[in-house]
Each structure stands twice: as structure tokens, then as C-alpha cells.
Amino acid sequence: MAKDTKRIRITLVRSPIGSPADQKATVRALGLKRMHHTVEQDDTAVIRGMVFKVKHLVRVEDA
After folding, report:
1. pTM of the entire structure?
2. Where are the domains of the chain?
3. Would residue 31 be called left, alpha or beta, if left means φ above 0 and alpha means ψ between -120 and 50 degrees?
4. C-beta separation of 29 from 12 below 8 A
């Protein structure tokens, strides 16, 4: 990982219970395991696409 890579902080703010299985899998693939859990990911198109899919469940900030 290069030091100049931009990072984003993703926090799970709503439970994926009751969401479709693909959205639950996306939350897990982002590295989120429980409510109010925060992870930092590289700001790439792939991660942004995953965040877009579950944008109603997460909060995104610049790291």
C-alpha cells in the first residue's frame, strides 16, 4: 500500500438484519462485523461501489 493512497472510514450504523443476503455479504466483505464497528479502507472504485450498495446502512468519512 502506498503512503499517498487516500483512505475512507466506514462505520456500520444500521443493522443488516432483514436486508437481502447480497447486502449482508457486502457488509461483511467491507470488514464490518457489528453495529458501530469502524474500518478504514482504501478509497478505490471497488470499495466505493460496495459502499454505494449499502449506503443506507453505513456512514462514510475521510480518514
Report:
1. 0.90
2. 7-62
3. left
4. no
Q: Which residues contact 63 (CB under 8 A, 6 or more apart)?
A: 7, 8, 9, 40
Residue 60's identity, in one-letter code, is V
Report whether CATH 3.20.20.60 matches the domain 7-62. no
Quick one: pLDDT band at residue 32, thresholds 50, 70, 90? Answer: very high
Classify residue 49 by burial, with Cβ atoms within 10 Å: 0-12, 13-18, 19+: exposed
Distance CA 29, CA 24 (A): 9
Residue 2 has pLDDT above 70, yes or no: no
Q: How many helices (H) and strands (E) does the chain have?
A: 2, 3
